[in-house]
Write a structure and sequence with these properties.
- It contains 14 helices and 16 strands.
- By secondary structure, it is of the alpha/beta class.
- It folds into 2 domains: about 230 residues, 3-Layer(aba) Sandwich (Rossmann fold), CATH 3.40.50; about 120 residues, Rossmann fold (3-Layer(aba) Sandwich), CATH 3.40.50.20.
- The strands form 4 sheets. It has a 6-stranded mixed sheet, sandwiched between helices.
- Strand 11 and strand 12 form a beta hairpin.
- The radius of gyration is 27 Å and the shape is elongated.
- The relative contact order is 0.10.
């Protein structure tokens, strides 16, 4: 069989009632598949069904050419490790003892750890950065620490396939990145196959080889990150009605202030974003420009500004675009410049700044126009 993990017309649900039908997934060994979708879309149900923790309502799950349903419990636990959102009851156990339970598929009926088992436990704890809390009571550590201990337990199991339900949900940004880096390292060095769900779309986009999109009734889309992160698709999948999400740039913004622009912001090179968001928080509609379409400010400006004066990247600014920017300055009550200086191809913005200064609309009360302080001191 071409695929290491293959689901054939898989249907999943609870108590005989199907939730999602006809799920077709093909995953090669060493690939990372991420499930995304709104809350309640069926991500955990799919993961539990693949892991044989829920009975299939139809179809088959294949693992390396064999039906998962036909594998013995011991063989399945040696090949597959699972970390779900339900908490392990680890009363009277240290964190190291919890991690060591990942070796039970190898220890025999008495659960006695060999030297090799102990090395595997130590390496897993070091890999996931929980060695320093190994002697602490598992029941008394934080949610984030508990999540990392459970991840170490799964790694310690030395599986061929790892199934994770929201593994980064309790981790701070440092440990999110460290954990995903560990997954990538195990993927590359050991051929580990990973199937997981994530809420963080930007992480899913970066780490996944394949992405499965669920909407609660069926598989909406299955493909590579490039095929999934198409303009407008994820906003539709998640039913975004307030604010905006830019799939291409990964920019998520709240709803723009309504009304006619009151302030014109001269920005660019990423310098305008803090001020754009401050204006949005204060409910002040604004216009901005002149922005090249590849500028760092552009995605945020498109989401939050009442008007964006924009132009094609790597091309001279057309005269009519400069005139449109001047008209926008004329219609606003004041102008704020976020830039200290302008580049070689930004002569139009230099002229626009001079125009704003001559019109008397440039905010002189913000100390030096264009200073760092001017980016934040809107009163």
């Amino acid at each position: 069989m071409e695929y290491y993990v293959w689901t054939e017309k898989m249907s999943v649900g609870y108590q005989g009632r199907p939730l999602i039908k006809q799920i077709q997934i093909g995953l090669k060994k060493g690939e990372i598949l991420t499930l995304i979708g709104p809350n309640g879309a069926g991500k955990s149900t799919v993961l539990k069904s693949i892991a044989r923790q829920l009975d299939l309502l139809g179809g088959t799950v294949w693992l390396d050419g064999r039906r998962v349903a036909e594998l013995s419990g011991t063989e399945l636990s040696r090949r597959m490790a699972v970390v779900l959102t339900e908490r392990l009851r680890g009363e009277m156990m240290t964190c190291q003892e919890v991690v060591a339970t990942g070796r039970y598929p190898y220890t025999g009926r008495f659960g006695i750890l060999s030297g090799e088992d102990r090395r595997a436990v130590a390496e897993a704890m070091e890999l996931v950065h929980v060695t320093e809390i190994g002697g602490q009571d598992f029941a008394r550590i934080s949610d984030g620490q508990r999540q990392r201990v459970m991840l170490a337990r799964a790694v310690c199991q030395e599986p061929e396939i790892l199934i994770l339900d929201e593994p980064t949900s309790y981790l701070d940004i440092r440990y999110k990145l460290e954990f995903l880096s560990v997954l990538q390292e195990m993927q590359r060095k050991k051929g580990l196959t990973v199937i997981m769900s994530l809420h963080e779309l930007e992480l899913a986009q970066r780490i996944s080889d394949r992405i499965l999109c669920l909407n609660g009734r069926y598989v909406d889309r299955f493909g590579t990150p490039a095929e999934i992160f198409q303009a407008g698709y994820l906003s539709k999948l998640f039913g975004v009605s307030q604010g905006s999400y830019d799939e291409v740039n990964g920019s998520m913004e709240l709803s723009a202030a309504r009304g006619k622009a009151e302030v014109f912001v001269l920005a660019g090179a990423g310098e305008g974003r803090p001020l754009y968001r401050r204006l949005q928080r204060q409910g002040i509609p604004f216009a901005t420009g002149i922005l090249f379409r590849n500028d760092l400010d552009y995605p945020v400006a498109k989401a939050l500004a009442a008007e964006v004066i924009e132009t094609e990247a790597f091309e001279p600014v057309p005269e009519e675009t400069l005139l449109a920017a001047k008209r926008a300055v004329d219609s606003c009550g004041s102008v704020i410049c976020c830039r200290e200086d302008f580049g070689t191809f930004e002569a139009a913005n230099r002229e626009l700044l001079a125009y704003a200064r001559q019109s008397g609309k440039l905010r002189q009360d913000l100390e030096k126009p264009g200073s760092t302080k001017a980016r934040y001191l809107l009163q």
